[in-house]
Amino acid sequence: MSLGLIWFTLADSKLAPNFNLTGVLLISMALCADAAIGNVQEKAMKLHNGSNSEMVLYSYSIGFVYILTGLLCVGGLGPAAAFCSEHPVKTYGYAFFFSLTGYFGISFVLALIKLFGALVAVTVTTGRKAMTIVLSFMFFAKPFTFQYIWAGLLVLFGIFLNVYSKNKDKMKLPSMQDLRSRLLTGKKARLPSQNV
């Protein structure tokens, strides 16, 4: 699913002439990290029997250290602080509302992880991102490329694999040998997956 979202980003970069390769690389890394973080959080919550609030505290604290280190390395902390001091109401006000909604969002995701597991949580968050991309085509005029179709199919295939991995015993797909024998004999029998 994450590869499908990365493919959407790459399709955007081919259509827009002013795309920054660093931005494409960073968003691709963020999508891969987002796919892995659910498993890491689920393992940590089971290992340490931690609450959702503890997970938010530690996840965001570690993220803060990474971002601060990156800002210090590239020299972006000084200009950011100067900009915030020039526009305090907008920057700190927006940051407050962004943080508040982010907290509710991450609490919801952590509740999903705790109740249903990381796979369901990653599927829900990736589906939300894919829906955001679809809605952006509906509300904003964008040029279209066939790569968007392939990316969407890759996301749907990822969702199918998720559902199939959870329901293997209910959805018995025929083997390649069964399919080949059916094609050679010309039988019009129902596939086992159609009986579900």
Automatic annotation (TrEMBL):
Q: How does it sit in the membrane?
A: Multi-pass membrane protein
What Pfam families has UniProt attached to this entry? UAA
**Does the keyword Transport belong to this entry?**
yes
For this UniProt entry, what is the primary localization, expressed as one broad class? membrane
An example GO CC term for this entry is: endoplasmic reticulum membrane
Which GO molecular function terms does the record list?
3'-phosphoadenosine 5'-phosphosulfate transmembrane transporter activity
UniProt KW keywords: Membrane, Transmembrane, Transmembrane helix, Transport
Transmembrane stretches in the record are 20-37, 57-80, 92-112, 119-141, 147-164
Where, per UniProt, does this protein localize?
Membrane
Q: Does the keyword field hold Membrane? A: yes
Q: Which domain of life is it from?
A: Eukaryota
Family of the protein in this entry? Belongs to the nucleotide-sugar transporter family. SLC35B subfamily.
For this protein, the record's PANTHER family field holds: ADENOSINE 3'-PHOSPHO 5'-PHOSPHOSULFATE TRANSPORTER 2, SOLUTE CARRIER FAMILY 35 MEMBER B
The identity of this protein, by name, is: Adenosine 3'-phospho 5'-phosphosulfate transporter 2
Q: Which species?
A: Merluccius polli (Benguela hake)
Task: Tell me the classification of the organism that encodes this protein.
Answer: Eukaryota, Metazoa, Chordata, Craniata, Vertebrata
